[in-house]
Amino acid sequence: MFYYDPTYILILIGAGLSIWASSNVKHVMQRYRGTHTQSGLTAYMAAREILRARSIFDVAITRLPEGASDYYSPVNKELCLLSSNYGATDITAIGVAAHECGHAIQDAEGYGPLKLQRALYPVCSFGSGLGVPVILAGFIFQAEPLIQLGIFLFSLSVVLSLILLPVEFDASNRALKILREMRMMNEEELEGAAQVLRAAGMTYVAAAAASVLSLLRLVLISGGRRGRDS
Predict the structure, then answer these.
(1) 2, 26, 90, 122: which has the fewest C-beta neighbours closer than 10 Å?
(2) What is the tens place of the pLDDT at every residue in 75-108?
(3) What is the pTM (predicted TM-score) of this model?
(4) Within a domain: residue 2?
(5) Which DSSP state fits 110?
(6) Which residues lie closer than 8 Å to 29 by C-beta, 6 or more apart?
(7) Catalytic residue numbers?
(8) 3-state secondary structure of 185
(9) Domain range spanning residue 162?
């Protein structure tokens, strides 16, 4: 039987934030996709020079097929760029490459939040995957301990999404600082890169907000159930 659940609004808010952030970053990246920098550097060349300038020689720069996502792997020591970015000379491509270099520099310097994220990732990933099934089992079998365990497990994904925020924003700040210091972009181009990285950063903020709202909904539902049973 269908019934009105006011906590659904939290899910809708989270979904709305995620959709807006995804749409916004696509729009901003596309805007600067056709704006080429005066330096003429490709994203690969920029990344190579940035890593060399920071005395990072053990990180390989590889090309990814379309459909994946740019990333830095601290385990494999790889900075991976999409094919559309790898050889491109536009603001978006170089800004993204510099951001991933920011992660490589964090890794080389032993940046605290990145180390914490890497340490917690296996536990948080495992727990978050079990959270919802355990909660559902708790509701099906009317087992409050299972519900509380499931909420705890789900909260691990929230912790991970929150830890990710300082890691991502620090990488973007490092990227913009490096691009300015190495004169790879002029001030107008830097403003474009800043807009690209801010838009990308908002996708992480939206994801974290959606996770927090989902957790809040689960807590409210659990609390309401206990109230009805008491």
Answers:
(1) 2
(2) 999 999 999 999 999 999 999 999 999 999 999 9
(3) 0.91
(4) no
(5) T
(6) 92, 196, 199, 200
(7) 100
(8) coil
(9) 8-229
